[in-house]
Amino acid sequence: xxxxxPRKTILITAGPTIEPLDPVRFxxxxxxxxxxxxxxxxxxxxxxxxxxxxxxxxxxxxxxxRFVRIKDARQMKKEVLRxxxxxxxxxxxxxxxxxxxxxxxxxxxxxxxxxxxxxxxxRNPDILAALGRKKGRRILVGFxxxxxxxxxxxxxxxxxxxxxxxxxxxxxxxxxPFGRGAKDVAIVDKxxxxxxxxxxxxxxxxxxxxxxxxxxxx
Length: 218
Ligand code: CTP
Prior knowledge:
Elements: E1 9-14, E2 19-22, E3 25-27, H1 34-45, E4 49-54, E5 66-69, H2 73-84, E6 89-92, E7 99-101, E8 121-123, H3 127-132, E9 139-146, H4 150-160, E10 165-170, E11 183-189, E12 194-200, H5 202-216
Parallel strand pairs: 1-4, 1-6, 4-5, 6-9, 9-10
Antiparallel strand pairs: 2-3, 7-8, 10-11, 11-12
Helix pairs in contact: 1-5
The structure holds cytidine-5'-triphosphate (CTP).
The site of cytidine-5'-triphosphate has 14 residues, from helix 3 and strand 9.
């Protein structure tokens, strides 16, 4: 009798993080979560065990996966580290806020007679860089969003965060990486292989990312 090998586990992060400023306000970004949710769906379809950790989005997670909701970057880090041990591959699509308000006001900040308000921001932890320092045999996939020099900057991120694969998006005139519709991305692996995908839906991009990961090693 031949026994099937155990199913591999893919940990995916999605969406924005929201960083509270006072009880009614936060700092965040335009991420909709769509890329991460599509990846979770495609990975599930290919019979991987899937853990999806997401910031606030309007999307419904696929059935049959482990789903964890978080709000801010520090909560995301805690949950990612909790599940990291059991993951064979981590795909960080989340648009983690790099900064958070240095102080969170317990009460709503009132405008009173102020014309200008100064916000002091503090660095959030870089979750992916922390994973890169303890990756072991895991495959690490990062995302990169740039307005300028996307390929060059992404190659630098691939190296500095110790990644295996990086998926490159550009935000520029006529190029909107957020939400639905046809997108252009490039996928680069640490051996230098690059695939350029033009005018693809996020579903099709997700399928190709999973194939790239499988070709790479899984
Ligand atoms: N990321 C992360 N933790 C952060 C910021 C980013 O884990 N605090 C992850 C993202 O999920 C993404 C990758 O790092 O997979 C790249 O993020 P990006 O914001 O493009 O790059 P940064 O490393 O933040 O670099 P820079 O601020 O120079 O653009």
